[in-house]
Structures are given as structure tokens and as C-alpha cells.
Amino acid sequence: MTDIENAAEIILRKLSFTSLTSGNRSRTTSIIDNLAVDVYSSIPSIVPIVVPETNDDDEGIPLFPIRQVYKNLIIISLGFLIMYTAFNGILSLQSSLNAKGNVGVKSLIVINIVILFSAIFLTGISIDIFGLKWTIIIGAACLGFASAPLWTCQATYLSCIARYHAHHKQKQVEDIVSLFFGIFFAIFGTSTIWGNLISYFILNQSNNPEKFDCGIYFNPLSKNETDKAPYVSDLTRYVLCGVFVGMGIVSMILLLLLNQIRPTKPQPVGQSLKRGLEVIQSLF
């Protein structure tokens, strides 16, 4: 306001404000008011800059208590471990159990083709409609068709609970996300071990061992058909598949215990389909 006062003093001295008539005084007052407005508008520091507050929880989802964060981490890790113990176990036996006509190998090809399709079109739609928790459960039930939404939700769910944990512990989100993913895949990575162990103990119940000449004793003219898939009785097949199906059901029940997380800004179905078509067009 110093500039306004100086300008007013100059005007008063030049116009002899005390000897002015009432008309001149009012005109002088209006000049002073205009100067005040001009000076005020020319000082940018006077105008406050309002910065909108950024909410760390930008999805509008209430934070889980720290115990629920740990519970969800354990549940999703064990659920995927049990699920993929069954899946990887039966997957590795397809060329042996279904060797006739290469049905097992062909089924694996179909599974991966369907995964490619669902990864482009179904992932975003299923998350917006069902939320993360129920998409994981549905994906576990229909693994071949919903593998892409399943893994997308798994990664998103881990990221969300890692962010909640970082909020509670006042730590960097990136560090906690890396920690949670490391714990998950350390547990998940053992699924192949457990699947092969189950297959080993079930398939090695036969009391009719076969003898093969190997190494230096191998005779290429021998009548032993070493390239033929070993015979597996129907009872053994039923027991093996029953165990793996039971493990899949247990994993679904376990995943039901997850807390629900649903995005607050779902995308329209048409927009998700359009984005999928754009992904396909970008490949050509």
C-alpha cells in the first residue's frame, strides 16, 4: 500500500487538496480509488494460489486396518498357491494322462489361445462389474477363460493392500509393493513343487514295476517301447483329478475371505472393448 499513499500525497500537493471545491475533491478521491485498484491488481503476491488437496486414497476406498492387510496378504498368497498347485500338477501330466491323439497337448494350446483373447477384452470389464475380490474368485473357477482378469486383479489387489500398509507404517509405497509381491511370489513359486509331489505319491502306488535297460545297457533293437506313455489306471486318474479338484475348491473358499475392493471410477463397457480393439490394431 506504500505506492498508493505516495501517489495520494503527490496529488494532494499538486492540487492543494485543502483549497479545492467539493467537486474537485470528489474527483480527486475517485482518482485515488482508481490508483488503489490498479496497484492492487498489479501485485501478484496478494492473490492467493489455491492448490487442491491431493488425497492419497484417490480411489475413495477406506483403508483396511493393519491386521486385515496382513490377513489379505496371507489369504491371497495361500489361495493362489493351492489353486496353482492343482493347476500346475495336472498341467504337467497332460502329455502322459491324455497321450492318445495328443488331446492333452491340444488342450494346452486352446487354454493359451483363450487367455490371449480374455487378456484383451475381459480384464477391465470384469473388474469394473464384479470388483477385485469376486473377479479373483470367478477367475479361479474358470481359470482357462479368466486367467488374464485373475492375474490383473491379483496384482491390483496386492498393490492396494501394500499402499494401505505403507499408509499405516508411514513408509514408501514402492518399497512395500515390492515387499508384498516378493512375499506372494515366494509362496506361489512353490506350487510346482507341491503339485509334482502329489502326482508322484499318487502315481507311484502301482505294484507292477517295469524294467528298462538304460545307459550302456540300452539296446535300440529292444522290444521295450520306452517312448510309449505309461499306463495309468482309471482309479488312479480319478484319485489324482479328485485331489486336484478338491484343492481348487479349497482355494475358492479361501479367496472368499478376502475383503472387497472395488474401483470407484469404472470405465464403460464400450470404452473397454474399444481399447481392446485398439490393442489388436496396434499389433499390425
TrEMBL record:
<keyword id="KW-1133">Transmembrane helix</keyword>
<protein>
    <submittedName>
        <fullName>Uncharacterized protein</fullName>
    </submittedName>
</protein>
<feature type="transmembrane region" description="Helical">
    <location>
        <begin position="179"/>
        <end position="203"/>
    </location>
</feature>
<feature type="transmembrane region" description="Helical">
    <location>
        <begin position="105"/>
        <end position="130"/>
    </location>
</feature>
<dbReference type="InterPro" id="IPR036259">
    <property type="entry name" value="MFS_trans_sf"/>
</dbReference>
<feature type="transmembrane region" description="Helical">
    <location>
        <begin position="136"/>
        <end position="158"/>
    </location>
</feature>
<comment type="similarity">
    <text>Belongs to the unc-93 family.</text>
</comment>
<keyword id="KW-0812">Transmembrane</keyword>
<keyword id="KW-0472">Membrane</keyword>
<feature type="transmembrane region" description="Helical">
    <location>
        <begin position="73"/>
        <end position="93"/>
    </location>
</feature>
<dbReference type="Pfam" id="PF05978">
    <property type="entry name" value="UNC-93"/>
</dbReference>
<feature type="transmembrane region" description="Helical">
    <location>
        <begin position="235"/>
        <end position="258"/>
    </location>
</feature>
<dbReference type="InterPro" id="IPR010291">
    <property type="entry name" value="Ion_channel_UNC-93"/>
</dbReference>
<dbReference type="GO" id="GO:0016020">
    <property type="term" value="C:membrane"/>
</dbReference>
<dbReference type="InterPro" id="IPR051951">
    <property type="entry name" value="UNC-93_regulatory"/>
</dbReference>
